[in-house]
């Protein structure tokens, strides 16, 4: 359908620069560190890098609070480093998409400073009011902060992230100019941060809710769809871009309006429903038991809903997938490979988060002092106000904090896992002793080598890159689906449980899997077994 887009067969790898690789010993990952690992990524089979923000920022939300959209945070390097990264990656056939955070800026951005100084032009870039509304925030803190002038400004995230007023045409001009600035440097597109909440219809009070009072005024508004159509018409369509939107709280129907091809808005979207499969009442800090059957139902629903979903099982905001949906004990290796196989067999574009390819797990934090994330800090404050004990807050936060996915990448088993020669900004997990790139490169049966083989398999399979998706069956905790193109039909088996599961046998010959011996007669899947079976059409 439509012109074959270069990104349709791509495998995307997300880099959270702060935690990827430090080249100058200050304990913070940086651009030269990323450049030093481009061959590693090429070797893995990566086509596109999604680079989390590297713009100047006070780092309150680790770069998702931008103070200059056209610069590079000196902590990560220089503009020359960025240009070198783009050109070196290009030479290796790797494209880069950058993180576009345009729902809000940092409160240290020039625009906000001018607004605080009373400049009316810049005050209208944001939301100021003498009387705050009753809206809730994403980080559990207040949504309005008082200025020295006695009025208030609105921020759906932290108080250092004031929301931009997208009803203001000046904001449109500023940000589309930013987009062109980076696209002209050879960037291949953007991952758009919380893109479906940027247009607020009004800042009137909302209906009181448990989660995000006021969201009816800004979630998936018509104004947002109009902006996306204009971004596409005025900017993105003039370059061969790939645009993926981070869209929170979307239903399949709302998501279709954001990314179906004929809409002329986004190319793909990240939905969240599977991330919240074990969230009690939609709040990830209060977990309920994870049930594989529920995960299967959710993934199947989204596979049927969207023409081209963005598939992911973890990112810099979520806990590690092997903790979330796999097993970190006796089935650590098997379950990490199963999750790889599942993610890379689905219809759509697969995203791999840095460290996922070696089976990195949640952090091994000792106490709340080890946690750096502003979201965790604010949630801890909110829990204190709710009189939760330290012991309970420690448990709830350590197991869910976004820092679980932000521990330094484990390149080898040396003191700081080869991430830095200095003091790492966040605690390195002790399991770097056996979970690290170097060890896994040497082990033919490692998770890393399974990722390489699965990415290679996927690239050579028309059924997976272009085929039709159809769920075949979902016996208890097992997900069986087909991917079918003209010349190839594959049956994909995923046993998402830690026990043997008898299943109906379909297909003719096993061509890929995460176990080596198969029990031919009484057919069953072993714990966390992943299996691809080809069928003669
Ligand atoms: O995240 C959007 C968001 O709502 C996150 O807070 C996420 O949903 C939650 O932490 C876990 O479910 C984006 C960025 O990915 C995140 O890193 C930023 O903190 C946030 O926006 C503000 O820019
Ligand atoms: Ca550094």
TrEMBL record:
<feature type="domain" description="Glycosyl hydrolase family 13 catalytic">
    <location>
        <begin position="14"/>
        <end position="406"/>
    </location>
</feature>
<dbReference type="GO" id="GO:0009313">
    <property type="term" value="P:oligosaccharide catabolic process"/>
</dbReference>
<comment type="similarity">
    <text>Belongs to the glycosyl hydrolase 13 family.</text>
</comment>
<keyword id="KW-0378">Hydrolase</keyword>
<keyword id="KW-0326">Glycosidase</keyword>
<dbReference type="InterPro" id="IPR013780">
    <property type="entry name" value="Glyco_hydro_b"/>
</dbReference>
<dbReference type="Pfam" id="PF00128">
    <property type="entry name" value="Alpha-amylase"/>
</dbReference>
<protein>
    <submittedName>
        <fullName>Oligo-1,6-glucosidase</fullName>
    </submittedName>
</protein>
<dbReference type="InterPro" id="IPR006047">
    <property type="entry name" value="GH13_cat_dom"/>
</dbReference>
<dbReference type="GO" id="GO:0004556">
    <property type="term" value="F:alpha-amylase activity"/>
</dbReference>
<dbReference type="InterPro" id="IPR017853">
    <property type="entry name" value="GH"/>
</dbReference>
<dbReference type="InterPro" id="IPR045857">
    <property type="entry name" value="O16G_dom_2"/>
</dbReference>
